[in-house]
Structures are given as structure tokens and as C-alpha cells.
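Researcher: I need the complex structure. Ligand is NAP. Inputs:
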Amino acid sequence: MNIIITGSSRGIGNAISERCIKLGGRIYGVTTKTDVRKSNCIDYILTDPYNIDVLINNAGIIKVGNVSELTSYDWKKQFNVNVHGTFNCCKTYIKHCIERKIKGKIINIASTAGLGARPGRAAYAATKAAIINFSLSLAEELKDYGIKVYCVCPSAVDTDMRHYINPDDDFINMLKPADVADFVYNLIINGEKLDGQILTIK
Ligand SMILES: NC(=O)c1ccc[n+]([C@@H]2O[C@H](COP(=O)([O-])OP(=O)(O)OC[C@H]3O[C@@H](n4cnc5c(N)ncnc54)[C@H](OP(=O)(O)O)[C@@H]3O)[C@@H](O)[C@H]2O)c1
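Model: Output:
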């Protein structure tokens, strides 16, 4: 099983990469150095002769602040990484799947923040809502090609991002990156009957 995962350097992405090594194939990590904001960010991977079975769009950023404090730069940067990054990788991967007749899987990591109000994090929540809706449409578009699209929405997870959002949280009882990694791993190996669904983890 060959997998591309964005944001693999730490947190949830790193845990998913480590878990997926058990699947025995190649794991291609995409980091800030490659930068998902670039439309050609995964092109170099797809020049390899190997078929890519799964794309996991996990890279994400957040800037905390009320809308009155948020700059247009902050707003755009979150959309560029979280939404455009997801679009960029999906677009390249879909072409790869269609050209090679691969029944691939796309797993987009959104958030429960995309499903409800998040005062103080409106821009981030809007990016996650965009990823959720994008995933629903993409699943429909790709049905005839046998390409599955899943959208995973974790609630708070004990990572650097969560420590930045709320350092006073109860981290002991919080989801760990390994919990999300287990969920994604099971989706990859058992998710055949699911498609186009919003899967929340709490
Ligand atoms: N933690 C939570 O509570 C939580 C809950 C729900 C959903 N999520 C989502 O889960 C995903 C992972 O979050 P996390 O908590 O693991 O965050 P994290 O610890 O802050 O890690 C974010 C990852 O994204 C990478 N990244 C940032 N900008 C990038 C870019 N332009 N190109 C490529 N990679 C980039 C980072 O790379 P560097 O190491 O180089 O910065 C890092 O590997 C995000 O999409 C986040 O929104 C998180």
C-alpha cells in the first residue's frame, strides 16, 4: 500500500505515517518544505513508477483570534494551506488515479470545528467547513472511477496545534494522535463500504 500524507513531520500526520508503515508499502511524507500551497507539490512523487493507493490530506494551520483582530493575511494563509493545499493534492492525485485506472482513496482531515461555531477561530473553522463540503462533492464526482473520498473530523487532539489553541485544556483525557492514526488505518483497510461520509472522532 503506497501512501502520500501531507503534514507528516509531527502531530497527527506523524502518527498516521508511523501506523501506516505496518501496511508494508511506501509512505511519502509532504512537509512545509514541499509546501502544499504549491499546485505542483506532489508532482515529484507521482513521477515514480509506483501506484499511489491513498492520499491523506492532513497538513493544516490555525491562527487564533477574533475576526476583528484577524488580518486578511491570516485569513488567506489558513485557506491557502488548509483548503487550497487539499485541492492541489487532490487534483494531482485524481489525475494519477484516472490515468492509471487506480481505485484510490482520498482521506481529508477536517475537524469538528468545521461542523459548528468556533468563536475566536472563525477562519480555521471556515476552512474546515470548506474541506467537509469539498469532500462531499468530490466523493460524488469520483464515484464512477471507483475512487473513494472520506472526510475525517477529529475533535480536540493532544498536539502542538491544540497546545497553541488552548494551553489550559485537559490534555490527559484528550484524544491522542495515535487514536486518530488507528481510525485512519482502519478506514484504509476496512473502509470499502464507506464513501463520501463525514466521520467524526471524539
Ligand atoms: N490537534 C487538534 O486538536 C486537531 C483537531 C481536529 C483536526 N485537526 C487537524 O489535523 C491536522 C493535523 O493537525 P495537528 O494537530 O497534527 O497539527 P500540528 O501538530 O500543528 O502539525 C501540522 C502539520 O502540518 C504541516 N504543515 C503546515 N503547513 C504546511 C504546508 N504549507 N505544507 C505542508 N505541510 C504543512 C506541519 O509541518 P511543520 O512541522 O513543518 O510545521 C505539521 O506537520 C490539521 O489539518 C488540523 O487542522 C487537529
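Model: Summary of the prediction. The first strand starts at residue 3 and ends at 6.
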